[in-house]
Amino acid sequence: MIKKNKLRYLGTVFFFLAPAFFVYFLFNVYGVAMTFYYSTLKWTGIGTSMQPIGIQNFLRLLNDPMIWHSLKNNLILVIVSISVQLPLGLTLALLLNSKIRGTKFLRTVYFMPMLLSTVATGILWSLFYDPNFGLLNFFLERVGLASLKSGWLGSEKTAMTAVLITICWQYTPLYMILMKAGLTNIPEELYESARIDGATGGKSFWYITLPLMADTIKISAVLSLVGSLKYFDLTYVMTGGGPNGATELMATYMYKKGFVEFNMGYGSAIAAFMFLVALLITSIVQYSTRRRSS
Amino acid sequence: MKRWLGLVLVAASILVPAMGGGKAESKPVEKQKISLWHIRVDKAMGPVIAECVDRFMKDNPNVEVENVGNENDPYKTKLKVAMGSGNPPDVFHSWGGGWLEAFVKEGLVGDITADLDKDGWRNMYFPAYLDMIKFNGKNYGVPSEMSFVLVFYNKDIYNKLGLKVPTTWSEFIHNVQTIKKAGYIPIAEGNKSKWPGALTFIYLSLRIGGYDVFQNAYQRVPGYTFEDPSFIKAGKIIQELVDMGAYPEGLNGINYDTGGSRMLIYTEKASMIIQTAGFIPSAKTEAPEFYQKKLGFFPFPMVEGGKGDPSDIVGGVNAYSISSKTKYRDAAVKLLKYISDKTYGQMMADRADRLSPVFGVQLKTPVQQEMFKIASTAKHVQIYYDQFLPPELGELHKDTTQALFGKTMTPEEAAKKMEAKAKEIFGK
A56-121+159-293: which CATH architecture? Predict the structure, then answer.
């Protein structure tokens, strides 16, 4: 009887999971599998003529300095995202959680960047950075720092930094909201008893807030990590990966090879490479943080 | 059991109507639906296309045309995806050249040679422009606009500084220096999308090396390469201009397509721009006062000691082709006529100052006549490299040129990269 019940239970589970699994399979698993298949082809992406060429695309990939350069840019993005967006998000969340006046207003203001579409954000910031009509250079000139004026997005030296700032601006609110949700889950009694025991603001942050936020922070870090590794949109809108590849990310490079240069086979190889890199790094992070918490 | 039955019933009630929906009977009288994709979204040209499409639908009441305008750069991706996914537009825009040829090679573009031979349709167009959309002796499209590059300038600034229209490169450099001293940006260059800067590079190598050097390098004629001294010299001149301060700060981040460099001209911060004739209709609608009173142009100056014919122009064609997979081939072919014929050409000239490669269009203004003179006396038309070359090589050409403007690559390195890629692609 017990066995029969269990079977029935499993059947129900499967039944409810099936639709989601179907969608997941169709749009994720199938897509990933096809990417790996396409990466073994010489294919323009527009016609039906496909030649299987084995691992040649991957050999070419390993010798392509541009992919390593893009990977480096992606890793910079990962580091900057985690080290800037998360702490900043947490700070803002703490600020919103405190009992200062006008938190509701501030919450709306801080969340605003998340509400704009990426293209709008990209164009807005491009205008901000515009060397001739932009606010930034105008401001620098007015405060007497005209020597610092630059072409920002047009110069290989500053383009990456300029884009990174925009990405942080766009994504910090997301982590702010996640952190805020995490903070709300910490029972107020803990702080109260800590206060009775004499814990000051700093101490209660280190010994209560931070440990209890560990899970939220971990989730945020993984989200940020994966997001950064496959990031595409703002660089595409603001610089198109340029100038001269200065802001090229793996995803923009894949787009360029696959869709602009009619080389879908190679583009798929880049996509497969991205998948492997993201999988590897995420697994390492997951594994190492799991060990620590147990 | 009951629970199971319930679930199955719920599932069935969701799935069954969804499956049946697709089989609904269509109406007996079938209207032929064809789609037209183009990139004429500016305020002067957009309505011209729309009106020609309306004219077509009036003459062919059984056909309905879906008229889709696109931005220039995203269009390339959009068409490629549509073609690749087997859902192409029936009639579409292209620039001829290597880009279109990539689609032709995959058998995705309709061969219209026989249609052009019928009723002398072919004779409507300037042969040189019709040939730009011809591959292996077959026609794959009709030319609807001539496009070529000129140097546009602000007449006011020229007058104020007492400058003359330059015919030689040293006169041009003299003007650049005078303009710079007077506190203006000499040349408004918005090179984010890479092709605007490439125009200057192509002109310089055309003037220095002559028409044949590029053609021979492309056809891998022995003795000719993309490392020809003329390409290197062109790169050097560009970097000299950069050093001179001829361009705005951060030019590689300024986007021509979204108006960045045009703004510099309209606001009179900059005095010249090297651009395609498409700049004229943009100026006409975006800055009408500037267009009427201050806009002048001259052909790209000759370079002293260069082998190129000073009458040669860098240009290209805007063409329309049909998909080989179109369901209504007759209607699509007919539509080609409506968006490239004399009526279209006349409307385009009258309203946007754009020239059509069709015989018999009347040019009413001095601007149009002057442009036509430059276009019709040119010995050669050098097609934009990025549209002429196979896509991978064309992209590299744009990338290296952008790096030349950014001074992060030497002209020698750029030429070397081009030659190496050409060897890889052509196999010799």
Answer: Orthogonal Bundle (1.10)
